[in-house]
């Protein structure tokens, strides 16, 4: 398969990775501004370290932006980072489930779509 013919699922995985990056970016802004809904989370260590979680989410968002670009370009590093970011993102949003169950489940499903898109097109990545 030539590089001009990017598979549809690889394109989908790259675009969804940009979407995941946007959600992490919005979450980091919410954590930096100490949003009121974050204080209602029953997990004690989460509510006291909102700035630390904001930094972690900002880093995940920046790496996810690069990963989405690398996936669309067809780099093997994009594929490997895509798996890593999708797994980290799913674990991260699993921690948010007590405060925002619907949003957390949506992001976890998007992460699963990214992993499926990356695994279904292994010949595209070099």
Largest sheet: none
Mean model confidence by pLDDT: 85
Counting DSSP H or I runs of 4 or more residues, the number of helices is: 5
Q: How many strands appear in the DSSP assignment?
A: 0
Q: What order do the SSEs take from the amino end to the carboxyl end, as H and E?
A: HHHHH
Low-confidence stretches: none
Shape: elongated
Compute the CA-based radius of gyration. 15 Å
Estimate percent helicity.
over 70%
Percentage beta strand: under 5%
Alpha-carbon distance between the two ends? 11 Å
What class, by secondary structure content? mainly alpha
Concise synopsis of the structure shown:
The protein has helices spanning 8-32, 44-48, 50-73, 76-96, 101-119.
Description:
- It is built from five helices and no strands.
- It is mainly α and 126 residues long.
- Helix 1 (8-32) runs antiparallel to helix 5 (101-119).
- The model has no long low-confidence stretch (mean pLDDT 85).
What secondary-structure arrangement, pairings included, does this model have?
Elements lengths: L7 H25 L11 H5 L1 H24 L2 H21 L4 H19 L7
Helix pairs in contact: 1-3, 1-5, 3-4, 4-5
List keywords for this structure.
5 helices
């Amino acid at each position: 398969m030539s590089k001009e013919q990017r598979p549809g699922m690889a394109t989908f995985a790259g675009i969804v990775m940009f979407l995941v990056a946007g959600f992490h970016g919005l979450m980091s802004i919410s954590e930096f501004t100490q949003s009121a809904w974050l204080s209602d989370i029953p997990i004690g260590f989460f509510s006291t370290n909102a700035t630390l979680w904001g930094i972690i989410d900002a880093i995940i968002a920046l790496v996810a932006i690069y990963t989405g670009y690398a996936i669309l370009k067809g780099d093997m590093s994009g594929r490997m980072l895509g798996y890593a970011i999708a797994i980290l993102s799913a674990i991260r949003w699993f921690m948010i489930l007590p405060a925002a169950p619907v949003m957390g489940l949506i992001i976890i499903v998007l992460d699963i779509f990214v992993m499926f898109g990356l695994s279904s097109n292994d010949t595209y990545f070099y």
